[in-house]
Amino acid sequence: MSDTEVESLNTMSPLTFPEIVDIIKEAAKDCSASHDNISFLTVVDIYFEDWNAYNIEERVELMELFYTIISENKELLSEIAWDIPPLLLNFMDGDWPMMPALRDNIQITLAFKVFNLVSEFGNPKELFLTCVEEIKKLSDPKSENLEMTQEQINTLTRSLSDEDKESAIDLDAYIFRLFVSFNSRRAVLKFRALFECMKFSFLRIKSIYPSKFLSLIVSTILNYMTNCYETSYQLSILRILYLFIRDYVPPDAPDDIFKTESEEVIEKIFADESYLQRKLIVLLADSIIDKFGQGHFRVLVAKILPSTVSQNYEVLGQPYYELMDRLLTLSLSLDIKIPDSLVHEVEKADDLFAKSLKTVNSSEDIIKLVIYSYNNSSFRNKSSTELLSPSPSSLIILFAYAKYSENWTMELPDSISTLSLIKLQLTVFIPYLVDYKLTNLTSVIYFMTITIMKIEKEKIVLTSEELNEESSKLLIVTYLQNIASIISNIPSVFTDTATEMFTKLYSSFILKFLQHLPEEFAYEYVIDSIDNCPFDDNTLCMLKVFKKLISTAKFDNESLVRDFSKLSLNKGETNTDKKPAIPLPPRSSNQKNSFISFSPERQETFISVFRKCYDDVFDKSSAHGINSEKVKKLVGFIKFAETLNFNDFEKIESILKDIKDSISVVQKNLEEKTGDDVKVIQNTLKFLQTNTSSEVIEA
Q1: Mapping DSSP to helix (H, G, I), strand (E, B) and coil, where does residue 685 land?
Q2: 3-state SS, residue 7
Q3: Looking at the record's lineage, which domain of life comes first (predicted)?
Q4: Contact 107, 54 (CB under 8 A)
Q5: Which residues pair with residue 248 across a beta bridge?
């Protein structure tokens, strides 16, 4: 007899496991005779509430018993199907041994076995709504505060091969990562079970208005992508959704509709429903592409810009490229005309700014305008009659991937200017700054690539007419500032590898972009960024770009693509295969040695900004008289000052001497003091001393 004991509902006396089995069997027998389905369901809810009250063998026996009961009584199954999905999810959430092979996880195979039966014979509408509600409750598994039992540790350890154990640098950490991955896998399996059940229930619902149910499916998936932000990145999830769209067929119409309605009415209903369903499917496809770009930007960027990533994705990226190829083909089957749709989005952005730029006087006004438009777009405004179309974010991914990875013949018309492309990007990028979960790094990089290719082709950013409009300059400044903000916020959202990738690309992008701006405009943007940008990493990048613009001669026959991180965007084409670009016209006959002139007046401005940075670092109001977080920025200024010639170098020497003196003062204040913050500052001072040229200071 089992040692498991569960308290009875009506008495305090414990029940043994065989007694519980007898109670469930008796309840099923009574239900068959009386058709009292609620009573049977109540018994099941009571004894299936806490699966951890039973051992593994008992759980399996109970679920097998439940499967046998409902498979033999289809009427009972149909009546109680709406309550079974949460019961099965609870079963999967029990404390089970974690086995690497999916087939060895008995709780998964059993749960899916019951799900299949329920999907086939349950009441379709009730089951459909239950699955919708259960998907809404799903959330990302949390790796924080997870604790492993000794039994789980032992099970996972036994499942590892000797080779895995030997290759693991930290076996305990490796086992814990496996544990976290199993939690993530369970989250994926729960969604898959619910989604498949919802899908098959949908197909069994006979309705003349299938778009009502399809809209519920689409909204449920969109909410799931928000609630399960990380889990929905999983390639298996994206494949499931892709297959749903690829194989989509509407459910059958009721048989009596052809008897009760005229042919004209039926024809109109079918036409309207076909239109609505297609738009919903396009919206779902758009969301899948956007989610794919959000979660797997490394492999997608590596495909067309391989030198921006250190890892070779030719092999690792194949499953992702296969899905992207399928999504690209899917877009054609959905009649998405990618270039035409992208042009349409550009025209919408042009129209938005054309109507409002007279009232826009600052970057803040542009941000307000875009956010207002975003919140009132056709995706969110149910009263809008505008046709739904893929978002610009998804369109640029499809366009760039098709053109540069798959060599599809796709071009944007020459009538679209660089400024028009920038307007479109502002409508995409500004919402990213409001909610980082919207950020699609693939879209950002692909847009930057298309923009720089456009600039290379036309050799200008702004036309003569656009240069005479202050609004055009404001758009350029806002655009560059938004890209800088996105790049600078990457470390808090993604990983260091993403930061490295973006920093490399951004440095090339901003350098080439500024080279094609008027000299005065480029200088004003650079010095303003160095002085006022709140992101120190961006300031360091701009200092390096500033130095190159000052010290580099204007390029003549230099191809922008060749110089763009030394990349080749076309398959089979090397950098040496490219024909020389059309020579750039000189910006001014008085400036032949650099893109930006470093005149005495501009040197004075830089020295003033340098002094301001010094004051921010050695701030007396800061702990111990130094702001450690700003030291890296100060070192960037020092390196810049040491590599350029200044007419009044005495002022540079003065700042460098002040830095040396301030270091000594802070070091003296730290004597005989201890603590973690003191150690941080001491290390900071060593870093600062190492990067400060003693020869220059003592000159």
Answers
A1: helix
A2: strand
A3: Eukaryota
A4: no
A5: none
Q: How many domains does the chain have?
A: 3
Output the six-digit token pair for 394.
């998804």
Is the same domain home to 270 and 348? no
Q: Which residues form the domain of 263?
A: 210-293
CA distances from 383 to 133, 377, 391, 657 (A): 26, 10, 19, 66
Residue 273 lies inside a defined structural domain of this protein: yes
Mean confidence (pLDDT) of the chain: 83
Distance separating alpha carbons of residues 434 and 148, to the nearest angstrom: 37
The answer as to whether 166 is a domain residue is no
pLDDT of residue 167: 66
CA-based nearest residue to 193, from 95, 103, 85: 85
pLDDT, tens digit (0-9, with 9 covering 90-100), for 316-372:
889 999 999 999 999 999 999 999 999 999 999 999 998 887 788 889 999 999 998
- Of the residues 258, 293, 328, which one is the last residue of a structural domain? 293
Q: How far is CA 226 from CA 254, 287, 290, 293, 424, in A?
A: 35, 11, 12, 15, 24
Structure tokens at 19: 């007694």
62's CB contacts (< 8 A; 6+ apart) are: 20, 21, 24, 47, 48, 54
What was the pLDDT predicted at 328? 95
155 token code pair: 């099970």
CA distance 568 to 681: 45
Please state the φ and ψ torsions of residue 313, each to the nearest 5 degrees: -100, 10
> Quick check: is 105 in a domain?
no
**What pLDDT was estimated at residue 660?**
86
Q: Which of 293, 327, 347 is the C-terminal boundary of a domain?
A: 293
Collect the ranges in the chain with pLDDT lower than 70: 1-13, 143-156, 158-168, 171-172, 174-180, 310-311, 378-388, 491-498, 553-593, 672-699
What is the structure's pLDDT at 502? Answer: 80
Nearest to 69 by CA among 54, 90, 87: 87
Residues 273 and 341 in one domain: no
Q: In terms of domains, do 286 and 400 share one?
A: no
Give the model's pLDDT for residue 688.
65
Same-domain status, 364 and 487: yes
What percentage of the chain carries pLDDT values higher than 90?
49
Q: Determine the Cα–Cα distance for residues 399 and 413; give it in Å rounded to an integer.
A: 13
Which residue, 138, 116, 97, 117, is CA-closest to 225?
138
| Nearest residue to 555 (alpha-carbon basis) of 583, 576, 520, 514 | 583
Looking at the structure, tell me whether residues 458 and 496 fall in a common domain: yes
The pLDDT, as a whole number, for residue 681 is: 60
- Do 446 and 332 have their domain in common? yes
The pTM of the full predicted model, rounded to 2 decimals, is: 0.85
Based on the fold, state whether residues 346 and 429 are members of the same structural domain: yes
Q: What length does the chain have?
A: 699
Q: Residue 270, Cβ neighbours under 10 Å: how many?
A: 13
pLDDT at 491 (0 to 100): 56
Within-domain flag for 374:
yes
Indicate if 312 and 435 belong to the same structural domain: yes
Which DSSP string corresponds to 257-302? Answer: HHHHS-HHHHHHHHHHHHHHHHHHHHHHHHHHHHHHHHH-HHHHHH
Cβ contact 662:618 at 8 Å: yes
DSSP state of 404: I
Using DSSP's 3-state secondary structure scheme, residue 661 falls into: helix
CA-based angle 584:588:591, to the nearest 5?
Answer: 100
Residue 394, Cα to own-chain centre: how many angstroms? 12
**pLDDT for 158:** 67
CA distances from 584 to 245, 443, 525, 558 (A): 48, 29, 22, 9
